[in-house]
Specification:
The protein is of the alpha+beta class and about 375 residues long. About 55% of the residues lie in helices and about 20% in strands.
């Protein structure tokens, strides 16, 4: 079999035009598949940015919440009830809203305002500049240095502006693991200041963040919260809920899926047609091998080896190109969102195997049916 594979490789590589066309088709398909699924992965990660950045283990929310973008305010008694439950170490409120900022230039800019519990500051960002204690100063806010930071005019410590006609002062510059998805900057302040600066409904608690005494206490906390008519979810469950919302209740998941299928079909059509033409042009060589004693199983192995070799090379080039584009995009394009993970690499690998298998199927049937006497009769 080793000799058979050497012959197969030489036949494939010596026809440089067909080999190049085959590699380009597969590379382009894998590039599209990895790029699109990476963008989708990045969107899902950024959609859960508040959950990831806060780091709370259990989130209590209104049971009717469907769209995680719009919080449903909770009555104050929910916070007291959760604090009294067995297994709860402590529970704190968090506020999330959008404020309209008037910059010093006179321009207006919307910003997400996160109000942290005044006592614990649970979910506070990692500071690059300034001290977290300064958040208790008058009119104090912490600006997050992410892709949207420049929309605030690249503020420094001491920069002042207005939020909903209230004076605001930047006392720190922070960093969070995951940036915002929706193209607006993020500010952190205390819970009491957030509800003072931003217009609110009768209730102001967006979520109740719970730290359980142990992991074993979480199921009991979830049941106790359900008894009072509200819903508790772990951070991972909440992230899954957000992901499912974008997958199934918006057009994002459907559009990405359709474009991924199109990328697969493009690669399949190009590689399938090119590989079939390659086999037709080399049919005499396969017939000659059959005439000198090569078995059908060996010829099938040759075809599968050629298709597999071209697919693996195309897979490597496609993933490499996608990774290079993502790295370049994150470096130079502020709002670029894409994350390569094991799942989309595995998906691309499965799809490239399908491309190789389907492309070689027709070629295998053609080679098996060829008769040596037809070759030599010509």
């Amino acid at each position: 079999m080793r000799g058979i594979f050497k012959i197969a490789l030489k036949l494939l590589i010596n026809d440089r035009g067909k080999f190049a066309a085959l590699i380009v088709g597969i590379t382009f398909a894998i590039f599209l598949i990895v790029q699109l699924t990476s963008i989708f992965s990045g969107i899902l990660a950024k959609a859960s940015s508040t959950v990831i950045n806060t780091g709370a283990r259990v989130w209590v929310m209104d049971p009717s919440l469907q769209n995680p973008l719009n919080t449903i305010p909770l009555p104050d008694y929910v916070l007291d009830a959760v604090r009294s439950m067995n297994g709860v170490d402590y529970a704190v409120p968090i506020y999330s809203g959008v404020g309209l900022i008037k910059l010093r230039s006179g321009d207006y800019q919307a910003a997400t305002v996160i109000g942290l519990d005044d006592t614990s500051l649970l979910g506070r960002p990692e500071l690059i500049e300034g001290s977290i204690e300064d958040i208790y100063s008058s009119n104090a806010f912490i600006a997050i240095k992410d892709q949207e930071f420049a929309k605030l005019g690249k503020p420094t410590i001491g920069t002042t502006f207005e939020i909903n006609d209230h004076r605001a002062v930047i006392v720190g510059i922070g960093h969070v693991p995951v940036g915002s998805l929706f193209g607006i900057p993020t500010l952190y302040t205390t819970y009491s200041r957030a509800i003072q600066y931003l217009p609110n409904m009768r209730f102001t608690i967006g979520y109740v963040l719970v730290k359980p005494k142990s992991e074993a206490a979480i199921p009991g906390i979830i049941r106790d919260v359900a008894k009072i008519g509200y819903k508790a979810m772990t951070d991972r469950q909440f992230q899954t809920k957000i992901s499912n919302y974008y997958k199934y209740q918006t057009g994002v998941g459907t559009n990405i899926l359709m474009m991924t299928v199109i990328g697969f079909l493009v690669g399949l059509s190009i590689s399938g047609q090119t590989f079939y033409t390659f086999v037709l042009e080399n049919l005499e060589k396969f017939g000659a091998l059959k005439a000198i004693g090569a078995k059908n199983s060996e010829l099938v192995s040759m075809i599968l080896f050629q298709a597999g070799f071209a697919s693996i090379v195309g897979y490597g080039l496609g993933v490499g190109m996608s990774a290079l584009l993502i790295a370049t995009g994150k470096q130079f394009v502020p709002n670029y969102t894409a994350d390569i993970g094991y799942w989309n690499l595995f998906l691309a690998f499965i799809l490239v195997l399908l491309i190789a298998g389907i492309s070689s199927l027709v070629a295998v049937r053609k080679v098996i049916r060829v008769q040596p006497f037809e070759i030599f009769r010509g």
